[in-house]
Amino acid sequence: MRRSRAFFLTGALVVVALATGVFLAMTRSPKEPQPRIANASLHLASSSLDGDTIPSNFTCDGAEISPALSWTSPPEGTQSFALIATDRDSLVHFVHWVVYNIPSDKRELPEGTPKQERLPDGTDQGKNNFDNFGYGGPCPPMKAIHHYAFVLYALDSKLSLPPDATAKQALQAMIGHLLARSELVASYHR
C-alpha cells in the first residue's frame, strides 16, 4: 500500500512538472531575432523617466499615459521601426506595448501617444496583454519591484501584420529584417 501510494505521488509530481514546463514554454516570450549588422549604433532614451524609475503617471496608479521615447539615427537601410515594452519580472514577460511600422524618418514616440490601432503617420499599434491597443502602464503586485524593458528595433522593411498583432507575431515578422536594436530598462514598484 505504501509503495503504490509513493509511486502515485511521484507520478503526480512528474505530471505536474511536465504540465508546468509545457505551460511556461507556451507562454514565455519568443526569442528575439538577431541583428544583421554587427555593432550597429542605435540608442533609445526617455525624458519621461526619473533616472531608471518609471514615475506613477505612466502606470496604473496614475494617468497610465505612455512615456516619451526618442532615439538616435539608425543604420543605413532602415525602412521602419518597431517597439515592444515588456515586464521582465513577470513569469511570461507581460507585454505592455506593441508598436510597429513607425516611419523611418521618425525619432520619437511622444508622451501620451494615443491608444489607437493606427496613428496619423501610419504607425501601427498592436494588442498588449491587457487586450488593448496602445500602451498599458505597469501595474505590478503590491510591494513588488518590477523592471520594464522598452526595446526599439530598426528594420529594413515595414512589417506585414494584422491590425491587432501581438508581440510574438511582430518578433516573428522581424526575423531576417532586424538591422539594430536598443533597450531601455526602468523599474516601478507600488
TrEMBL record:
Family matches, as PANTHER family: PEBP (PHOSPHATIDYLETHANOLAMINE-BINDING PROTEIN) FAMILY PROTEIN, UNCHARACTERIZED PROTEIN YBCL-RELATED
Keywords: Protein kinase inhibitor
Keyword Kinase: no
Molecular function GO terms recorded: protein kinase inhibitor activity
NCBIfam families, alphabetized: YbhB/YbcL family Raf kinase inhibitor-like protein (TIGR00481)
Stretch list, region Disordered: 106-127
Compositionally biased spans, kind Basic and acidic residues: 106-121
Family annotation (Pfam families): PBP
Record-given protein name: YbhB/YbcL family Raf kinase inhibitor-like protein
InterPro entries, per the entry: PEBP, PEBP-like_sf, YbhB_YbcL/LppC-like
